[in-house]
Each structure stands twice: as structure tokens, then as C-alpha cells.
Amino acid sequence: MQTKISGHLEIEIQGESLILLPQRAIYWQREKTLLIADAHLGKAATFRAHNIAVPTGTTEKDLQVLSELIVKSGAEHLIFLGDLVHNKLGLTDRICSLILAWREHHSDIKITLVRGNHDRKIPSIAELMRLDIVEEPLVMKPFALKHHPEKDTAGYVLCGHTHPAVRLHGAGQKSLRLPCYVFEDHIGTLPAFGSFTGCADLEPTGSERIYVLAGDTVVEVH
Amino acid sequence: MNEPMGNRRGKRPNMFKKREELQRRKDELSRKPGNTRKKRTTTVALESISKQTSGGRELVEDWFSRQGWEPFQFQKETWDAYLKGESGLIHSSTGTGKTFAIWPAPLIEWLEESLSSGATEVTTPPLTVLWLTPLRALAGDTEKSLREMLDGLSLNWSLETRTGDTSASIKARQRKELPSALITTPESLSLLLSYADNQKMFANLKLVVVDEWHELMGTKRGTMTELALARLRVLNPNLRTWGMSATLGNTDEAMHTLCGINASTTRRITSDIDKEISFVSLLPESVENFPWAGHLGLPMVEQVAQTIEKAKTSLVFTNTRSQCEMWYQALLTVRPEWAGEIALHHGSLDRETRKFVEDAVRDSKLRCVVCTSSLDLGVDFAPVEQVLQLGSAKGIARLLQRAGRSGHKPGALSTVVCVPTHSFEIVEFAAARKALAAEKIESRRPLPKPLDVLSQHLVTLAVGGGFRLENVIAEIRSAYSYKNLSDIEFDWVVNFITKGGRALGAYPEYCKVQDYDGYYFVESDSVRQRHRMSIGTITSDDSMNVVFMSGERIGSLEESFIARLRPGDRFVFAGRCLELVRTKDMKAFVRLAPAKGGTVPRWMGGRMPLSSELSEAVREELGIAAQGSYESEEMRLVEPLLRLQETWSQIPDEKSVLVEHMQSREGYHLFIYPFEGRLVHEGLAALLAYRMSRLTPATFSLSINDYGFEMVSNIDIPIEMLSEHHMFNPENLADDILRSMNASEMARRRFREIARVAGLVFSGYPGKSKTSRQVQVSSGLLFDVFSEYDPENLLLHQAQREVLEQQLEESRLRKAMKRLSKSRLISVELQRPSPMALPLLVESWRGKVSTETIAERVSRMQLALTKKPPKATRTPIAKSKITQKTMLKKAAEESGSKVS
Fold first, then answer.
1. All domains of chain B in start order, with CATH
2. Fewer CB atoms < 10 Å away: N or C end of chain B?
3. Which pLDDT tens digit goes with each residue over B864-898?
């Protein structure tokens, strides 16, 4: 089923097969679970509410991509690794109705949110998206699902929060900055899912495995 | 955090309750500004004046003679023109006297009026003269010389300064009552316009003086000034504008840009003070062992030190901040005893430090200051006896400006000593000397209607009491830069600040400026506050403060440089070797490092391209050499090298383009020498590569300098392709260039400034970081989001236009291509690299033209695993070793095995 999504890359962590998707999500085969970090829904709306002119369309697109991922992967469980919604201000009537309609469309899927820093002040999200909110870590052996990248005794950590990206250097002075997945000894970090999210440069040490999102393809760079 | 939303929702209904208040504001707007004039209470007797029988003009002339001066002809001409109600521009190449050409004029007018009124007592006038200066640092000097005259005439005018450095309490007092004459910056003027009572403030304004207009004009700050002036002219239809400027190639245009297109009579006044400039080249003994490439010039350090010894005070101009830091170190190395007598001055240093250095120069306490363009402007340095220019100034106007920093008094001789950093620059000096004599000076063009500045200005007006749409459009178009603003563009900007960017429809949740029956105003306090904070951030860049552990500030460095350092890394800054301790809250904490060494930060920008005037002069100079004539001292020195060029290849003259080709281990090299400056070459090289690869699939690696460019490909490109396929044809230039270069990435970077000016990115309130963090976003991300979801956004188009016009100099490129397509192509097959080809072979800039997808590019790129060392300018030692001898030897060895 995962072959329906092109450009993915399959890796093995703790004996589990994880599929890194070019849409910035991980599909965990055995659990039929889709992992998404830092969606920041309604972020552009927050900006507009602050009277900063940012066009609409980002949240619509993110929800659409989510739909495609669910359909093509056949996932039964969707887990957000924190920062699902950017800010309470961004949950305008319009954004809420978009989310409601989306949920209606995927009424069967189970959704869990591992609470992140941006989600603290938004209790209404549980009702809106009909999801369960859990505090980190959410333990699903062999993994400890978290928002913050901190080691955990309960298992290998899969998390978000940092919005990682790396800079690649080519010949001359050309360089390219791309969002990436990073797997260290005890922690694996997902790129931010939201299309209106920035990223922060990672300082590679050499011991981690890095997979960048190069357009429609996930490429291992180290 | 949720306040703004709450406010907005709560305020909606209130908007209608506010109708009365709005009506009042609207009435105020339609009323004649003069009616609101405030009565001043301070009354000072004008005894000294009323006792005398003479008029204002005689009093001023008296003052001149008491100083032992005689007013210059151009000064009197300016007074007359002003009194007749004219506006204009006073320009001169160097020298002083411009301040006293305009400052007495409004004083004479006021004296005449006061005396003819017959009153024995006159009150201190309300704001009458606004004096705009581009640099805060100049404000102090200006105030001093303006006050000198006020005191000399015992006038009861008040005179104050208002800049970003002025304390909050003084600013608050000034908000209640402005002085008779106010010295301020364009940003502070814009801020004043953002207060609702700005009509009252400017009701009595008679004159706006803009100092150093040539510096402002071609920048967004200049455009902002134009718009502010347009507003002031609406408030005061009789307002006069006078600018002071260096002479430019387009001085008339500079005047019209300043005075606006509605000015009925404008006058251009040339300062008639004859300024003599002594132009000296400090030449190496021979070019045999002199570098043929590079830009630091350190082999000249001993000669430079000797030249500095000859004068009491010298300014040493460098072209980049890193070169500045290196030369400071180098001079101390050869003259350790100068510690304390020489200083460093560039834009990244702390303001206090810079001021300390400036004061020390003024008080003749320093032997020499190594500086960058940071000392190009203004501050009056009487003691400076000579100016040294390290490397080519790359333009005649800049050279003149810098020369004028010495002998800074009327009649004194200005001395500029040009020091080459590589052999070919000596040709540039010879060319500059001739261009200088022929007064071929570069033009500076005002920016064509930047919409980011317009949108900022319209919000300023909306914050400052609101505006009516039908009135404001004519006002905007009266500004020279916006004279061709189309209805579509204007409507777009109005829509952008009221409803969001999209042409049709609106962004939900967004309403920065409200439209109330064609009357536009800002209701939200937070928008008002945020807008005021972002006015004047035009020039700010993402910089980090560099501070000692004790908290003492040293200066600021670009964040990108600091980000590459790790704690413990050393770097040279502000003339000291520093060690990074840690970075926190946008501050880099450092301590002095015990040993010497470390990298020198490489700042962005810095290297200017050879100007078109100087390029032309260089081509002419070579044309003469091609005929075998070597007249000047400079040309005689480089004669052996040019003779070598002639033997191995040819010297291009004005009517021909030299194309050299050669084969080496790297591939097939093409060297082309249009002599048009690096930006044009960058565009031209990419364009040719793109056009050639359309005919024959090939990959090109490119190398650029100010004189020409090199294209290396894996296949042999027949030279005929250049002429037969009209490679230099300027048709489809814009399209081809956008396709051939990574133009979208360039536009993305360009968008940073546009987003800041248009109020899309906001650096935050001091001390309120938490709130603003929710709305922080990088301009790059915004650019991507706009490109995808609102591609018709005109700010995106502006970014692209700015890339074409400013980064790639499209119009200059077009002109160059026209010239090249008419020129004769001389093709020479090289047996070994010619003297002109060598610098290109070692040039570090290497671009590539490719049409690969990101994934393909990634597969060939490398992850910088171990931390990349901070980018530093190449070490001077390695570079200086590349002399003509060694390079020729090496190149001959390399190519010899392959070619011959």
C-alpha cells in the first residue's frame, strides 16, 4: 500500500520498518499509523488576525495533503507529535469549519495528539477534531512518541518541535537548504508538516542519519 | 496573547459609535491647514535687531564679514532664489559652503518679515525649517554650524535635533512643541507624519533642506523622503525644498526628484568654489613581483606606511570591512609604535566607538584612520591632509567624494593617493585620472515606484490621521519616482493595506487599514504601534551584537557569520582578536583571545562593480595602449604586462571584443573581455552559457571579474557560434536571464527587505518577545507562500524587478550587449593563459548553469558534516604570492603538458 506514495524511503529503527514520506510524515507499517509533527494549522490565520497580510490556502493545502496520505497509506491511526494548531487566534470560524469538514471526511480514523507547547492553551481542539490528547511520552513499543526531542527511558523517541533542516554544499559557493528527518542514537526528529512553517538549521555531528526532502523525493545524505 | 482578537471583535460595533469622532477627523482633514496654527507664548525681544535700520539681508552679510568671510556668488544666488519662492539643488564636486548657501535664506526672510511688521518684540517662530540628514552622525555637526549663525545674529529661533538617538523625554517634549528649526532623518520625519496632529506641527513650515541628497536618492530611504515631501507640500503649498548634493551625471534629474514634478520653478546652483584635487598613484617599483589578482593589496603596506608618515592626519579608505580589519593589523605589524595613533572605522563597529574615532580625528589626535565607506559622508574633518584609497574606488563619483574628505575647507587642496591591490588596477587609475579630468561622473537613478515603500507610506498616512483616496493619488504621483504609477498599481497597494494582497477578494481576518466611505484610517492601537516601530527599519539587517562578558558592546556582526562559529573559535573584529564564549538572546559574548590569528569576518556585499563610466575609460585607455602608446606613469609601469598580452594574444580596443580560447585538463576555456563590471559579466556569462547550451547540450562553469569572464565547458564550443547565432543579441534578454540564473532564489533573498518595508515581517517590540514570537516568520517562507498562494502579488514582481535592475544591472547589460553585437570579434587561440586570462583562472567565484531538478542537484551535493569553518577572506599571504611570475610559471606548467 505504501507504494502508492512515490518518492518514499523505507528505513529500520529498533527493528521496526518506518516509511519516510516526501510529504513530511512517517508511516509506521506494523501499527498502520501515520506520524505527523508540527502541523501548525491556522498559522497564517493567526498572522492575518494580527493584521499581517499572508494569503490563505496553506491550511487548506495541509488538510488536503493529510487526506491523501490517509487514503493512500490506508492508515488507521493518525498521531500528531505536538503543535497541531499554531495559536488560538488562528482557529477562526473559517479554519474551524475547514477542520470539521475534513474530520467528517475521515470520520473512521483514530486521532491522537501528543501535546506540544503550542497546544497547551487550546483545549477546544480535542472536541473539534475528535481526538485524544495525551501528555508526552505516548509509549508504543519500541517507541516513545513525544513532541520535544528529549531522551526517554520508555523507548526510542520520535518527535518534532525543532523543524530540522540542513544545508548542503555543492561546487563553488552554491548551497541548498532543505528540511529533513534526523535519526540520532536515541531520538528521531520529523520535519515540520505545516506548509507555513519555517525550519532551523541543524548542526550535523556525523553520527546521525539524515534524510532530506528534495522536492518529491526523500534522499539519504548521510 | 488573545487580546488583539478580543479587541477587534469588541470594537467592530464601536466603529459606528465612533462616527462622530471620525466626522471630526474628516472635517479637520478638509480644513485649510493654516487655520490650526498654534499660538506660541515665548516672546523674546529683538532689540539688537529692531535697533538697527538695515534689513535682514544686510544683517546676514554683516555676520559673514564679522567671520572674516565674503559670501560666495553661489550662496547669494541661492538666497535670492529662495526669497523668490524657488526650490532647487545646490551641488558641487567637493568642498564646503553649501550649508551657508541655504541656511541664511529662511533667516533673511523671517528677519525681513519681522522688521517690516514694525513690532519691537517677536515670538520664537514655530517649526519653520526642517533639515534632513541621511546620517544620524551628521546631525551633531549640522546643529553646531546652524547654531553658530543663530547665535551670531542673536536670533530667538529654537534649534533642536530629533533622531533615533534622541531621548524619549526630549522626543515627548518635541511632540508638544517643535523647535523653529529641526534637524532630523527621513525615518524620523516619517514618524512625525504618523501622528494625528501632523498638520498642526507642519503648519508654518517654509523650507525643507535635504543634505547629501545624492546619498539618499537612489535608495528606498530616498523614495520615502520623496513621499514625505509630497505630503508636506500638500500641507503647505508654498513649501520650498532645497537639496545639497555632490555633482552627479544626472544632477538635473536629482533636482527634479527632490523638488517633485509639480514644482513650478526650480534652480540648479553650482558651487563656484574651485576645488583642486591632487591625484597621485602610489606605485610598486615594478609589476614583476606584484600580484596580478586579488583585492587586498598587502604587499604595499610598507609604502603605504611611509606615505602615512608624510602627513599629519590621513584617512585610509578600503573597499570592504574585512580589508579594513586586515589593513589595520598589517599597519600595526609594520609600525608597532603606532598603537594608539591609528584607528579603525567601519559600519559594524559600535556607534560610540565610531563617534570616539570621529572626534579624535577632528581634534587631530590620530595619525591615521583605516575606514570603509562609513567615512564617505559628511562629518567635517578639517585636520585630514590626505586620503589613501586602497584598491580601485570602482567609480569616479566615489573617488571624488573620498578625495574631498581631505583639505575639507574652501580653497584647500584635496589629495588622494591611490594604492593598487593588483596590477590591472594600475590601468584603472590611469583611466580614472582621465575620466576625472573630463568630469565623467556616474549617475544615480531614483528607484522606479517601489510598492513596498508606497504601502508603508500609505499606512503612515492612515495612522497619522487618515487620508482620502481621491486626494492622495495625485499627491503620490507628484513624487518623481511615482509619476508613472498606474491606477492598477495604486489600487493594488490600497487593497493590500486594507484587504490583503489578492487582486479580487480579500484575506479573511485581515484589516490593517479601514475604509470608511473612501476615508482610510487605522483603528487598531496595536497596528499603529507596530507600524511606528517598523518605520525606519529599512536599513537594518539581521545582525547580532558582539559584547564582552562584562556587557560592553563592541559592535555588530551578521548573524550568518556568528552562526558558523563555535564557542572557543577565534575571529578578528574591531581590530582585536576575540574568542566566542557563547551566544544568547541575539548577543554574541566574547572575550579577548590571548594569541593573534583567527579568521576575519567576511561581510555581505562590499565589493562594488566597476562603474560604467570607469569601464568606458578603461576601454579607452586600453585602446590607446593597443596602438602602442603608453603615456602616463601608470601605463608605463604596466607596459611590460600589456606587451606580454599583446605577444601572446591581443589587447582589445574599444571597437572589438577579445575572445580567447584554450584547452586544459579542466576542459575547454573561453575567455571574453567586455570590460563592463562584474555584475554585467555575471549576467552575460550566465546568459551566453544558457543560449549556447540550448544549441549544444553542455555544462558550463563560470568565472567572473570586473574585466571579463571565463566559461569552461566539457565540449569544444566553436567560436563561430558566438557570431553566427547572435549570442549578444539583447532580444529576449529579461526572459533568458531569468531562466539562466537562479533568479527565483535571488528574488527570494531580495524579498527580505521588501517584506520588512511593507510591514510583513516584524522584528518585535523590545521586551515583548513572547507576543511577537507568534507572528514571526522568515521572509523566505513568506516569499514561498506568496509565490504559491498569491502569485500575482505585486511585491513578488517587485522583488524580481529589483533583482533584474539592481542585482543584474539589466539596463546596463542591455546596453553592453548592443555594443558587443556591433563589435568585431577577435578570436585568439592561446598556447598558455594570457595575462588577462590568469586572474580569471584563479578567481574563486565559480557559478554553474544547470537545469537539473533539486533531487539531481542534491545527489551531487555534500553535507557539511564537520562544521564548516567560518567563511573568511582568503589569507593575504597565499594571495600575495600569486605574482605574475609564479602564476605564469605555474599556468605554463599546467597547460604546457596538455596544449603544446
1. 36-270 (3.40.50.300), 277-437 (3.40.50.300), 451-537+745-801 (no CATH), 543-592 (no CATH), 649-741+808-899 (no CATH)
2. C
3. 443 333 333 333 333 333 444 554 455 445 444 33
